Amino acid sequence: MSDERPDEERAATFREVFALREYRSILTATTLAWVGDYIAKAAVTVLVYRESESVALSAAAFAVGFLPWLIGGPLLATVAERYRYRHVMVACDLVRMTLVALVAIPGMPVWAILCLLFLTTLANPPSQAARSALLPLVLSGDRLVVGLSINASVGQAAQVVGYLLGAAIATINPTVALLVNATTFALSAVLVRLGVRDRPSAMTAAHRSHLLRETGEGFRLVFGDPTLRAIAVLVFSAMLFAIVPEGLAAAWAREGNTSGLDAGTAQAAIMAANPVGFILGGLLIGRAVAPARRVQLVRPLAVAAPLTLVPVLFDLPPLAVALLAAVCGAAVGGLLPVANGMFVRALPDGYRARAFGVMATGLQVIQGLAVLVTGLLAEWAPIPVVVGVWSAAGVVLMLLVGASWPGRTRDGGRTPPRAATPAARQAEETAAPEVGGPTGQGPVGQRSRQADAPTR
Fold first, then answer.
1. What is each CA distance from 257 to 187, 320, 327, in whole angstroms?
2. Using the 8-state DSSP alphabet, how is residue 310 labeled?
3. What is the distance between the alpha carbons of residues 3 and 449, in angstroms, rounded to a whole number?
4. Which site from 85, 142, 290, 431 is most exposed, i.e. has the minimal number of CB atoms within 10 Å?
């Protein structure tokens, strides 16, 4: 059964997808790495705060994981196409395993911890790119859609579990949490090596071009087309606020109004609330709201995301903060699928992978900067005041950004709009209909990259 390709007109089932051994190996390996990452993220913020007693440095430890996307995310993701996907994934896991184990060495100075964390996260873009490109080779037809849906749900659940475990373990011993993360990377490497079939690289030497030129074309497409630019700005703006409670949770739980909760429980509640809300918001909007209505809800949801966090100004207890963070996450979880769908429809085939590389990088950078800036502000003002004022400013920003929201594609949402830039129009006119084009990645691979791109 696992070797049969499903009818393109028939919806695939979860049973069909899980029947594929390769997919099970990829999903298990990825889930282990995700859980380990979030355990380490929660533990490192505690470790750095204990060593430095600085909210800014604790926030920097959380934010440093986003910086590699700013420095070289699109380039590193493109590099993954030049080598065998299995080799890239295994190599990235082994590199991250080694570096995280070094962070766990007792007495490591804060500056060394931050440097090692930065080097560790440099392996994330090529690993994610390789996994995204590999999935359409493993899953055919509607199995790919179902598989990506499973990945998205499992990813959010892994974040919740990782934050809860990380905060709990870090309260006792942050070093143990880091060693758990190193172990998850080791297990992930073994699962990929033994459970995934080796395949040749998608891009041959004859198809390679200048990495900087290809990356620049992706940026010109996203920010040169009015529809794509409006969607990108709205998504980036929304993520400026949703991530802040997570990034400041370690210091918030130890400096704010705990209402009798221990610091570990308070931190876990705040960090896990947003992804829980994200899952619930996505399910609610996706299942209970008609497609046309979803588009109409984008503007109010965009404003609601920061608005729900404004009441933290009043130094609320951790559970109340967690509840507001969950509502914020639900608003973001409701608007992102709609925005992503419109973004997909507005893209020409030949530019989809690069455009989503730009979006993935933008999301990572925006979140990292938001946590870093609010962490610095929290050195001068109480955390509840910083988050509340930051969110109030976000309400104003989202009202302004919502004014340029396209509402729907130019033809009423039935077909994608024509790209606005000359380079994009040329790609749209010459896009190859099958795998193996000039960049070594056909439409199926491009769709998988966009759908599997990180949204958080």
1. 39, 11, 20
2. G
3. 23
4. 290
Q: What share of the chain is helix, strand, coil (3-state, %, to 5)?
A: 80, 0, 20
CA distance 309 to 331: 12
Alpha carbon distance 356, 340 (integer Å) = 10
What is the identity of the amino acid at 449?
A: R
Phi and psi torsions of 342, nearest 5°: -65, -35
Torsion of CA 281, 287, 289, 293, to 10 degrees: 90
Give the tokens for residue 23.
């997919």
Asked if 205 and 212 count as a contact pair (C-beta separation under 8 A), the reply is no
Task: Please give the structure tokens belonging to residue 433.
Answer: 């209909």
Specify the pLDDT at position 207.
54
Cα–Cα dist 141/337, whole Å: 21
User: Burial code of 346-381, b = ≥16 C-beta within 10 A, e = fewer?
Assistant: bbbbbbbbbbbbbbbbbbbbbbbbbbbbbbebbeee
| Cβ contacts of 427 within 8 Å, gap of 6 or more | 348, 349, 350, 351, 419
Residue whose structure tokens are 């009015």 = 226
pLDDT in tens, 84-123: 888 889 999 999 999 989 988 887 887 888 788 888 888 8
- Of 257, 254, 236, 218, give the one whose Cα is nearest residue 368: 236
Measured CA to CA, the distance from residue 73 to residue 126 in angstroms comes to 8
Q: Report the C-alpha gap between 103 and 414 in whole angstroms.
A: 51
